[in-house]
Amino acid sequence: MLQNLKAQPTDKILALIAAYREDPRETKVDLGVGVYKDSSGNTPVMRAVKEAEKRLQAEQSTKAYVGLAGDPAFSDAMINLVLGDTIPRDRIAAVATPGGTGAIRQAFELIKMAAPEATVWLSNPTWPNHPAILKYLDMKSAEYRYFDSETRGVDFDGLMADLSGVQAGDIVLLHGCCHNPTGANLTADQMAEVIALMNTKGALPFVDIAYQGFGDGLDADAQATRMIAAGFDNVLIAASCSKNFGIYRERTGILMAIARHEDEATLAQQNLNFLNRQNYSFPPDHGARVVTTILNDPALRADWEDELNETREGMLVLRKQLADELRRLTNSDRFDFLAHHRGMFSLLGTTPEMVEKLRADHGIYMVNDSRMNIAGLNANTVPILAKAIVDAGI
Questions:
Q1: CB-based contacts of 68: which residues, under 8 Å, 6+ apart?
Q2: Which of 96, 103, 121, 127 is catalytic?
Q3: Beta strand residue intervals within the chain, DSSP E
Q4: The CATH number of the domain covering residues in 65-296
Q5: Residues 6+ apart with CB under 8 A from 157
Q6: What is the pLDDT of residue 12?
Q7: Cβ proximity of 321 and 157 under 8 Å
Q8: Which of 60, 277, 285, 378 has its CA 20 to 30 A from that of 151?
Q9: Is it true that 11-45+311-391 and 65-296 share their CATH fold?
Q10: pTM of the model
Q11: How far apart are CA 96 and CA 78, in angstroms?
């Protein structure tokens, strides 16, 4: 049997990590892996997470399974974090998932069950796992333009032109904030136009929000998702706790399904529970308990928000330092977009050949589409990166 398997392509980011580790140069810079790093190059455990884990260790009396949907308190806490009071709770079905990736996979499975002929529209570019999972599930997909390689911002005219081709019942996947990989976000006015167009066409939204709190703040980063939730009868939302709580290895995520009314939400909940049962039975609980403990305790939540703001502001400082250094070196404003992007990533907007040149000549490691992890920088490496970009002729 096993001899019939086909070799699978090596994950590009994992290969990049290996190449970085083997590089002996002291000035090498890792901007590839999508994990937050502090100024020392570490991915720290947040203070509130450590305290919540201490409490769990002292208070938890069992490791028995939770329900198929996970702890209801986790769903309530996350729905409040992402949606606030935008949608009545009885219209929302939700299940805990193994990370944001698990939520996305379950959402695509739900779409396949409910609307097997629907086309799922993805931004070009988008997170590579989006099209990869759709391909594996043999689902229809299409792209809409998103990134303008000249301005390094959103190609809004191209986006609207492409989305004018959606059909009734199609699904449009939108990034809630901090677009991955570009870092370029739609404005509130632009999102309102997208919502209006989709309603006219009868398309439905699926929001992937993995970086809430990494852009402009928790509520500001949730604004687009809340606008979308308020604008449609049915919405799917996949949210991740990996980044904003720093619990990557705990695999903590949630899938929400907004329904027209309570009866429809009950039906959606039954199907979400069914999908969890088929794929992994009961979802992981430790990370979800940590998140719930933090969000439901005023002191822990305040400390978490303070540390999250420190993280966000640190990335904004790095963005401005890099943009300023490139302005100084080039005597032009063509890299100012780096200060306007939000989240962990920015798309430099250059070719794979130039990315390889940065790696070979300067030890700068980034994904070949030129996605940079801004959180991989620090005050010492910003000048190294800026000089490498200029020397490479980007």
A1: 95, 273, 276, 277, 281, 282, 283
A2: 127
A3: 29-30, 92-98, 119-124, 140-145, 147-148, 153-154, 171-175, 204-209, 235-240, 252-258, 345-347, 364-365, 371-373
A4: 3.40.640.10
A5: none
A6: 80
A7: no
A8: 378
A9: no
A10: 0.96
A11: 10
The structure tokens listed for 226 are 């809340």
Q: Is 208 a catalytic residue?
A: yes
Q: Which of 30, 148, 155, 208 is catalytic?
A: 208
Give the chain's end-to-end CA distance (angstroms, integer).
49
- What are 166-207's pLDDT values in tens digits? 999 999 999 999 999 999 999 999 999 999 999 999 999 999
48 is catalytic: no
Q: Which of 77, 93, 96, 210 is the catalytic position?
A: 210
Is residue 54 part of the annotated active site? The answer reads no
d(CA 295, CA 341): 28
Residues 382, 70: Cα–Cα separation, whole Å: 42
Task: State which amino acid sits at residue 222.
Answer: A
> Catalytic pick from 69, 155, 243, 388?
243
> What is the residue extent of each domain of the chain?
11-45+311-391, 65-296
Let me know if 127 is a catalytic residue.
Answer: yes
Among 18-27, 185-194, 238-247, 277-286, where is mean pLDDT lowest?
18-27
Q: Which class does domain 11-45+311-391 fall in? A: alpha beta
